[in-house]
Amino acid sequence: MRGTQPGPDVGTLRVDTTALVSALLDGPVAVELTSSCTHALEAASLLLGIGPGDEVVVPAFTFSSTANPFLLRGATLRFADVDPLTGNLDPASVAERTSPRTRAVVCVHYGGVAADLDRLVPMAEQGDWDLVEDAAQGLFGSLHGRPLGRFGRVGALSFHHTKNISAGEGGALVVNDPALVGSVPVLLDKGNDREAFDRGLVNAYEWSGPGSSWRMPDAAVDRLATELARRDEVQRARHRIWDTYARELTSWSSATGARLPVVPPGAAHPAHLFWVLLPPATARERFLAHCVERGVRCTRHYGSLPRTRFGRTVALPGDICPVADEFADRLVRLPLGPEMDEGDVDRVLVAVTAFR
Which domains does the chain have, with CATH numbers? Predict the structure, then answer.
């Protein structure tokens, strides 16, 4: 609960919080706080002018919000396979899916571990398509010292309640191309030039283009500001748990054939999640039940989109993604949160290492 002293003006708090997020990203051309990461991607799709006749490549292993914003604009989705070590977009599969109709490729940084941007960025430059970063899990992640969200023409962050830093629900649109900046305020203000009016540049605001109600609500901005203030504490706690899992599960994974996360050279991750790929042919439900019996709740994650009920209706027949299918089928996530103490972590380790 806040004290009795009045807090900062809502408008000032929004400006200051936006500036802090921008600083954490090393100052992109523009950052706009949005009502969700999904809405940030919808705004990005509209900002890039994607529409019917265009193709957009997305990883098969991802959440539906990576694909829906482009599908809603009338684009044809192409599903690309993923790297078996990281679950991130495989550039070789992207090369197979792109064509002269490709307008954008969306890369996801799974768990905040950077996708293969060393290959994807040059491919975008040579292929005449836009790279979009779904960095929903990527805040505090980087590659070669450059924050995730800063490599594509546009990017999107998430401040959902499941993320390291939360607004309850919220996101951010990250714009890295100066040519796009002028259109952003109208997109986020229901298609009106309200920002120009607020700055005294016009006498009255009016409908000026397509857009929607995508700005982060004031209450969410307030919560985000509070969460960002404790970011160092949160990140220290998360890395402590992540590092403990990585260290203490190494022998178990070697003995069982399970796989642990891989962080590529040059990448720094935010300790967003810790996953385990269970040994081949292991029944995941048996592992989950084993952990529950020992007081530990592990979970699966999203599946392979082309294999979902709706995914099968939009995936092209040739977009087969066997690595993503297997990755999704074998993956479980271990509990990881800043509220966990050493006893909580020990219980997880005991449960996992007892599984054979």
Answer: 10-229 (3.40.640.10), 231-353 (3.90.1150.10)
